[in-house]
Every structure is written in C-alpha cells, then in structure tokens.
C-alpha cells in the first residue's frame, strides 16, 4: 500500500512536470545545446591557439628581399613594405610585427590576443636570423655554417596530450554539466516542495491518508529521476560533441580503451552519485523554507558550491579528490579515458552520496512532520 501511495505521488509529479514546457526544455534541450556549444567553443579556441598572422615591416626593397628569403620557413609571417603596423595589430588583422629600425629590431604585439605567444616565439626566431642577414650576406652565411641545424621534437605522446586536454577542459565541462543539473534540481525542488507551502496546499497534504514522508519520498524520487535525465543528456551531448569536434582526442580514447565498455558503468555511477548529492542538498533546503525566495537564495549558494567542486582537482592534486562526490569528476574521467578505471573510489563516493541522500530524507521528513503539527 505504501509503495502504491509513493507511485501515485510520482505519477502526479511527472504529469505536472510534462505540462510545463519550460521545465521540459530546461531538462532536455538546454543541456544538449549548452554542452554542444561549449565544447565546440573550447575545441575552436584550442585548434586556433597556435595560428597567427605576423609581419616583417621593412623600410626599403633591400630589406624586403632579405625578409622574403627568410620567411619561407615561417608561413604565418609576411614581409611588407612600410604601413601602419600598429593599426593593423589593434584592428586584429595581425598578431605581431617585426619592425626593422636603424640600430635594432622591435617585436610589437598585443598581449591580449590569445595567439600572441606563438607569434612572439616565431618572430623572435626570425629576428635572430634577420639581424645577421641585414648585416651582410657573408656574415649570414657564416652564421648558418657555424650554428647547428635546429630540430623540434615533441616528446609528448597521444596519451599525454589527452591527459592535458582532460585536465584543461574536464573540470570546465563537469562544472557546466553540474550547473545545468543543479538549475533543474533547484527549480524542481522549489516548485514541488517549497511550492506546497507557498501555494497554501500543504494543509491539504496533511489531511491526505498518505503519510507526509511518503509524499515527500515520491516528490524526491521524481526530482532525482529528472536530475538524472538532464545529467545523462548532458553527458551524452559531451560525448557526441567530442566525437564531432575533437576527433583526434576521441580516437585516442577509443584506441586506449580498446572497446572496453566498463566506462559506461563508471560514468553512470558518477552521474547517479551527483544526482543523490544534489537531491539531498536541494530537498533539505526546500523543506526548510516556506517561501521560494528564501529557498532560492540558499539553493543558489548550493549550486555555486557544487559547480565549483568540479574544478577543485584542477588546483588540488591529491588522492582524496577521487573519493569525494562531485570533486572526483575529473580524476575519474581521466582514469576512464586511460582505461584504468578504479571502481573502489567510485563506489566509496557513491556510498557517501547515498548516506547524504538518506540523511536528507530523514531530516526533510522531520521538518515536514514538524510543520504539520
């Protein structure tokens, strides 16, 4: 009988949610679009970070010819004759310029441009060669004969680059996923739990034959299921976006995992753990207040804490981060992508989330019973 009451509450809550188009959009469409757009933006910035445009600003044809001879090895640097290079930099047409003067060379750039670091490095190398070339052909030839040939060797493997990619963006994507899940949890708990008191319908619930704790449990289970659904949509969108816009990293993950599908279970445990933590926090906050405004204030603080927790491993390199719910997002995703999934920390964090959820239900039920009195 008790299960039937809980199921009845859950069915009514779902019907009410599906009748609210805004809630459906927040639960399904917003996570998809937000994650897809964010990953596209991150991949776009990363892919273009090493691309730039630079110029060698010459004063006469002789300097122009000398610069042309050298810029063949620097396809992103073009020699030009005069012109207002400062205006071109400020307008974003070029990232840096090597300016030839009487007794020295100047490298002019704008440090706010994201690609300026690579441009400065190449302009510096070119300037070193250009100084000798402008001093005379013989001196330049002697310098080339004396100086050893330069070779650039990248020691990082595909796995190393994948590690860097996850460390750099994993926390950001996790933070966004949790922010979207939190916004849904805050909205649902405020409408479903605090709303009963604000709409003056709580007294009606007291008179129902169903126990208040069963009503609260039914509402909480619906909140959990909807948070879980939005989280799965967000994670699925992240996987799809990586496959579309970061194919190199995705192919590395596929190669490393070698078809091992245990990562699906690991990701599911991560999301379910986050779901329980969020439900615990927002259910307790919603049960403690009779007004949505006060509830939203504390819920917003909870949203900020949960979202920030996802990026903690970016600043803290410690083993304990793998055992704490929400905080363990980046370490676990990193281990999954390296095919070294450790389920012990995952299960410990799951148990912590479960304990938080059960304690929240107990305290929330006590608050409802006290209000009923």
Descriptive notes:
The protein has 2 domains: 2-45 and 158-372, no CATH class; 54-146, D-Maltodextrin-Binding Protein, domain 2 (3-Layer(aba) Sandwich), CATH 3.40.190. The model has no long low-confidence stretch (mean pLDDT 81). A 4-stranded mixed sheet has the order 2-1-3-4. The chain has helices spanning 2-18, 21-48, 61-71, 85-90, 116-135, 137-146, 158-198, 202-207, 212-245, 247-257, 262-288, 292-309, 312-315, 329-337, 343-372, and strands spanning 54-58, 77-81, 96-100, 105-109. A hairpin with a 4-residue loop joins β3 (96-100) and β4. With 373 residues, the chain is mainly alpha-helical.
Helicity, as a percent range? over 70%
What is the CA–CA distance across the termini? Answer: 24 Å
Structural shape: elongated
- Round the Cα radius of gyration to an integer and report it: 29 Å
Poorly predicted spans:
none
- The strands making up the biggest β-sheet line up spatially as 2-1-3-4
User: Which strand-content bin applies to the residues?
Assistant: 5-15%
Taking the sheet with the most strands, its summary is: 4 strands, mixed
Order of helices and strands: HHEHEHEEHHHHHHHHHHH
């Amino acid at each position: 009988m008790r299960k039937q009451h809980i199921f009845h509450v859950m069915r009514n809550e779902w019907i009410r949610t599906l009748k609210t188009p805004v809630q459906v959009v927040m639960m399904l469409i917003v996570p998809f679009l937000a994650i897809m757009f964010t990953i596209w933006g991150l991949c776009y910035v990363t892919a273009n970070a090493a691309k730039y445009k630079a110029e060698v600003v010459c004063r006469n044809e002789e300097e122009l010819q000398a610069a042309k001879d050298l810029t063949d090895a620097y396809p992103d640097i073009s020699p030009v004759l005069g012109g207002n290079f400062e205006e071109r930099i400020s307008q974003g047409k070029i990232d840096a310029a090597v300016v030839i003067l009487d007794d020295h060379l100047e490298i002019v750039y704008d440090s706010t441009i994201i690609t300026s670091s690579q441009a400065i490095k190449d302009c510096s190398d070119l300037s070193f060669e250009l100084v000798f070339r402008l001093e005379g052909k013989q001196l330049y030839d002697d310098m080339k004969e004396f100086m050893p040939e330069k070779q650039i060797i990248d020691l990082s493997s595909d796995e190393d680059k994948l590690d860097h990619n996850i460390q750099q963006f994993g926390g950001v994507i996790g933070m966004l996923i949790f922010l979207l899940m939190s916004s849904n949890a805050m909205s649902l708990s405020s409408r479903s739990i605090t709303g009963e008191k604000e709409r003056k319908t709580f007294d009606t619930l007291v008179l129902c034959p169903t126990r208040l704790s069963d009503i609260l449990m039914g509402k909480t289970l619906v909140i959990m299921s909807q948070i879980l659904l939005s989280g799965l949509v967000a994670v699925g969108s992240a996987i799809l976006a990586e496959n579309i816009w970061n194919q190199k990293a995705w192919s590395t993950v596929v190669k490393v995992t070698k078809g091992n599908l245990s990562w699906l279970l690991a990701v599911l445990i991560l999301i379910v753990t986050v779901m329980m933590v969020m439900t615990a926090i927002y259910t307790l906050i919603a049960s403690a207040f009779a007004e949505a405004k006060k509830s939203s204030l504390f819920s917003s603080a909870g949203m900020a804490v949960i979202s920030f927790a996802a990026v903690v491993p970016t600043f803290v390199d410690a083993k304990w981060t793998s055992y704490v719910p929400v905080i363990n997002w980046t370490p676990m995703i990193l281990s999954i992508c390296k095919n070294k999934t450790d389920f012990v920390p995952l299960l410990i964090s799951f148990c912590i989330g479960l304990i938080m959820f059960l304690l929240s239900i107990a305290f929330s039920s006590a608050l409802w019973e006290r209000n009923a009195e």
